[in-house]
Amino acid sequence: MLLSRLAFRHARLPPCTCQRLLSTSRANLAPFRLVRLPSRALLPIAGAESVKFLQGLVTNDVNRLGQPKDPVAAHGEPEIVRMLFAAVLKADGRLLNDIFLHLQEAGTTPAFLIEHDESQTEALRAYLKRHILRSKVKLAKQADADKAVFAAWRTEEESGEESLRSAEAWLLERKAAKDDRAPGMGWRWTGLKEGDAPPKELFEDATPAHYHLHRLLHAIPEGPEDWPQLPLEGNLDLMGAVDYRKGCYVGQELTARTHHKGVVRKRGVVLRLFREGEDVPDSILPAGLAVMPYPDLFPLPPSRSTLTPLTSTVARPRPAGKIGSSLPLVTKTGRSFALAFGSVKLEHFVDTAQVDSDAVFVVKAKIEDGGEVGMGMGESDEEGGRWLAKAFVPEWVTRRLEEEEAKKSR
Q: Cα–Cα distance between 181 and 228 in angstroms, integer?
């Protein structure tokens, strides 16, 4: 939406700490952004049987942790796998938690930190404790209060090779690992909340809102607001979190059967939200405009709101998906809009690389107490009141879908 100059000039905007604009033409800035993620917590677990215990509960192969990343090419001191993206599922295959496993100690008594959404600590611990039984595993009573999760990713400016090498050396000293969920996600690691400050010439301070924007631009879900109940519909497999050869784990049956014999009808995409009456956007971000995340600028449809096709051949079209978390953005010119994560049926796309003009959806808030949650939220002076969403499939999703299809056809 485009706020009028007068309205934007005199509006009482909530305070925002996201002062840095995301631009493609910036000079004299650090090659990386860095942020501590307060929404993520770390639950310690250790013991002689901790690998076996976790192997039966998560979707990825825990045995990879501590192993060389490339055993064939390893020489001298090999780089080992220190971080693993995975999920914890319910018995029916529905998502319980998205997690990262961070290796702390290898050997005969391995130790790990289970990174998870901070709102889910109690539920996750109760679930794990229920499965321990007589296993030689020690589970902490609460999340580690002294440690935090950090993330760093490249800025848009061109940086010299020396700066990049220095920044990556600093990251490796802290045992940071590359976040392989999607190309360009950057690095991730755990450390003390009050640890040493990164070099200012190499790392620009970012906010959680900047990281949220970074995730949305790559269609990366994180936490209960984003994930659909069926994890493959949020691209869990495409992000490398599922090992179909590792053996049994809780929730495996539905996940494996869907992969080998079924069809995943929905996939995670980037949604650009706009108001009815505005032009349908043709790109995720406005061309040539710097944008700033502004989390409290205006209310947005809540997570789990349904997406119904704007145009349809039937009178009452069925929902095509749901939205996850969303984020308001502002440009230097006063233009505001929003991005969101969404899980949408792929049948609404001509192909995954080109979004059809019909891939525009009406956002309908969920019903509670006889009315829609968020009805009328974020109303502007523009004509029309409904929120609409245009879906965009990131290039990495298209490529990995093609790779999966090629594997199945062999």
A: 17
Distance between CA atoms of residues 266 and 343, nearest Å: 6
Say if strands 203-205 and 32-37 run parallel, antiparallel, or are unpaired: parallel
DSSP classification of residue 177: E
* Count of other CB atoms within 10 angstroms of residue 402: 12
Q: Which residue has the tokens 């900047």?
A: 210
What global pTM score does this model have? 0.88
Give me the DSSP letters along 232-297. GGGTTTTTT---TTS---TTHHHHHHHHHTS---EEEEEEEEEETTSPPPSSSS-TT--EEE-TTS
130: left (phi over 0), alpha (psi -120 to 50) or beta: alpha
C-alpha angle with apex 200: 331 to 334, nearest 5 degrees?
10
Question: Residue 117 to residues 39, 100, 223: CA-CA distances in angstroms?
Answer: 6, 10, 5
Distances (CA, A) of 127 to 30, 63, 120, 130: 42, 21, 11, 5
| pLDDT tens by residue, 297-345 | 988 999 999 999 988 767 778 889 999 999 999 998 888 999 999 999 9
Predicted pLDDT of residue 24: 40
* Chain center to CA of 337: 20
- Judge contact between 382 and 298, C-beta under 8 A: no
What letters, b where the CB count within 10 A reaches 16 and e where it falls short, cover 171-184?
A: beeeebbebebbee
Residue 123 belongs to what H/E stretch? helix 121-132
b/e sequence 114-129, b meaning 16+ C-beta within 10 Å: bbbbeebbeebbebbe
DSSP structure class, residue 410: -
Q: What is the largest CA-CA distance in the chain?
A: 67
**What local confidence, expressed as pLDDT, does residue 269 receive?**
96
Q: For residue 308, what is the DSSP state?
A: E
Closest CA to 273 of 298, 238, 240, 247: 298
Q: How far apart are CA 338 and CA 107, in angstroms?
A: 47
